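Subject: Sanity check before I submit

Could someone independently write out the structure tokens for this chain? I want to compare against mine line by line before I put it in a report. The sequence has 227 residues.
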Amino acid sequence: MCGLIAIAGGATFLVGLVTIRETNYPARTPEAVAKPAETFAPKRRLKDWLVTVGTFVGWNIVVQLTSSQTFTKLPYGWKTGSLGLLSISGFIGAVLAFFISGKLIDIIANRMTRANGGRRQPEFRLPAIIIPALIGLFGILIFGLTISHHTMWVGPAFGYGMQGFGLTAVANVVVTYAVDGYHDLAGEALTVVFVIRNVIATVLALYTKNWQTATDDSEQNDNSVAS
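---
Independent answer below. Compare away.
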């Protein structure tokens, strides 16, 4: 699978390299360069650069790795094919987010625009992140708690779907805000978002298995002591 993914990624890169035009050439006028530094916005603090999308992508990785470690063992004992079917719930949540999140962003942004006298601001998109963020958070909690109590697959699947909805909707809000707020630097802004997102996901992917193994060993030791 790693080889196939590498081939597909390399082919996609080559196709994009020779077919996608670069259309972003921000003009740097002498007047803008000559302005004093006080006229520009101050640098953002570290906490202002944290990327919300990375957190949700990281938890998506944790959910996937937890599924592979949990449902293939007792008391579930699923086969690999059945484990793959569990991901359908996350896919359904993402598909619902495609249609609902965009509409939600427009409704909230349009109302705030009317309240602002018809003047649109990029930050009017940000309040729409609250609802999917809460849905995704509760989805992760439902997924973890139902697995911890060894419930039927319906509970984890429902939580997985909520997490998939939250991840997709939150990413939609962040991406549209970045494009709307940084017209001339939209490509660079999205690159920063995706780089930080993938760094968080990679770190969690590397250490989640060890974290789960340590948790399982601790539970086994506690059960031994109790017995």
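---
OP: Matches mine. For the report I'm noting this point. The two ends are 43 Å apart (CA to CA).
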